[in-house]
Each structure stands twice: as structure tokens, then as C-alpha cells.
Amino acid sequence: MVFAMLKQCPMLQNFVLDMQKSYDDSDDLVWISPCSVPECLSSQLRRCSIINYEGTESELHFAKYIMQNSRVLRKMTIFTLCSSELEVDKLELLKDLSLCPRSSTICELSFK
To answer: What superkingdom does the record give (predicted)?
Structure first.
């Protein structure tokens, strides 16, 4: 659904995605990287924020997909859930994403 929306917004420059799960979600959603890249990622997207990031494999793959395919991305901000357990893992999450290759040489990655 997110990919379909990105394809329909070729001029999108700022993107905010809230990953908060509803209590009804019994299965984790799975991100499968598409073969194509939406036009907004390849030429327009400047800022991306992911809210309520838990560090699941799907969330990690999605964040990497954005960074690897957004040529003009200036800032990627990850807002993690407020949890003492997650605080310990923040450094590991930051390390995983920091090591990810980026299309944009000016992309700044931050965790909050």
C-alpha cells in the first residue's frame, strides 16, 4: 500500500510514515522491495520520517530501501518508541542503518 501511494505522488518531497500497529495486528507486515523505484524517490524526496519505529526486519528493509533509492534525500529521521528495552537497542539500530549505502551523498540520518 505504501509503494502504491509513492507511485501516485511523483512530486512528493516530504514523507512521514507512522509504523504504529493496531491491537488487531496479529501478523507483522512484510516489506518486499519492489523491482522499480517510484519517481518521487529517484528525483524529489528530500525528507523522510518514520514514526514509532521498532526495528523489525520489515521496518529496517523499508528504511534501507528509501535511503538506497532516494537520490536527493537530505534527512532521514527515525522516531523510535519510548521503551527502556528499545533504548538499549537504539545504538544497534542506528549502526545497522548508518552502514546502509545511500544514493544521496548529503543524506543525514538521525534517531530520536
So the answer is: Eukaryota
